[in-house]
Amino acid sequence: xxxxxxxxxxxxxxxxxxxxxxxxxxxxxxxxxxxxxxxxxxxxxxxxxxxxxxxxxxxxxxxxxxxxxxxxxxxxxxxxxxxxxxxxxxxxxxxxxxxxxxxxxxxxxxxxxxxxxxxxxxxxxxxxxxxxxxxxxxxxxxxxxxxxxxxxxxxxxxxxxxxxxxxxxxxxxxxxxxxxxxxxxxxxxxxxxxxxxxxxxxxxxxxxxxxxxxxxxxxxxxxxxxxxxxxxxxxxxxxxxxxxxxxxxxxxxxxxxxxxxxxxxxxxxxxxxxxxxxxxxxxxxxxxxxxxxxxxxxxxxxxxxxxxxxxxxxxxxxxxxxxxxxxxxxxxxxxxxxxxxxxxxxxxxxxxxxxxxxxxxxxxxxxxxxxxxxxxxxxxxxxxxxxxxxxxxxxxxxxxxxxxxx
Length: 406
Hints:
Blueprint: H1 3-16, H2 22-26, H3 28-37, E1 44-46, E2 63-69, E3 76-84, H4 86-97, E4 112-118, E5 134-136, E6 142-143, E7 150-151, E8 157-159, E9 178-184, E10 187-191, H5 198-208, E11 218-219, E12 225-229, H6 233-240, H7 246-249, H8 251-254, E13 263-267, E14 270-276, E15 297-304, E16 308-313, E17 316-324, E18 330-338, H9 349-369, H10 386-399
Antiparallel strand pairs: 1-10, 2-3, 2-5, 3-4, 4-9, 6-7, 7-8, 9-10, 11-18, 12-18, 13-14, 14-15, 15-16, 16-17, 17-18
Helix pairs in contact: 6-9
């Protein structure tokens, strides 16, 4: 069969595919299963989720902080420690004790290691540090206040009262589990059991947005908020991933977007919706090396599986974190970061809130509609719903199920 025939066959096959069945969104069992099969294997943002607090983790050297990974969903207690690099300390001591004159070269600055550990003692499961607390790391290392078990700052077991003559102790399970952690700009990501590397997860977004100095993003708590939505988390994501609804649901947004040139690009762990702007909208100043150079780009809408949306505008970033709270309720965290204050004239809190409320209303309508005994599933709009189709495929892949059978 020729390549053209194969392409036509695949295209027809895709056009005949159906969306996730309504039973997926209604099932409490599938929801509970998804927490382990999807969320525990995904990369999640680590931050302070309490309203009004600084979202970014500005942990100082010599300090430790307890955080919760995806509160309301995974609720996984984690412990972050920041310690000075041993290598850097040795280098400094060598320089301090050296009798030779300085050679004029720049000396290495101290490096500080950010480590993420389980915040649960391996003896009887007590929290090592109460949730939300930040304290100085004790000189003797981490100590559980329940039975006095001690750990080094890298999580390795140190000592345990009452276990002096126990055979085969300590074992691997007696160390604190070390959680993989990475930074991108001001953001920290962690995963309990990553299904993909962090590079595969973040690289498409990092490469496309290399022209932005993300380290200059400033969190604005007064422009941030959160909403509780009476709907399944995946319905909220479904809605975000397509622009087909924009003219019907978001008249104000539709007025500043060039929907004829609105397009979706897929990558392994998410996708990008490119918000081409019309003459009424503020646009990015793109460098020649950017693949979108010469185009009027008003927004980059990045979705990272399963529940994060990075919406970049000329003025900065609107970050959405979708946190499931049950099989029929969701909390969405909206966090605002300013990159270029001089472009804030294009930022309208009322317009953004209006768009959020419009999305919330329509998603809750779908939540009510899928309770129907008549509705089973729908078809994908081939061009507009590529992101939705990809999202559903990733859900089925992570859960290792043919969800059409449910």
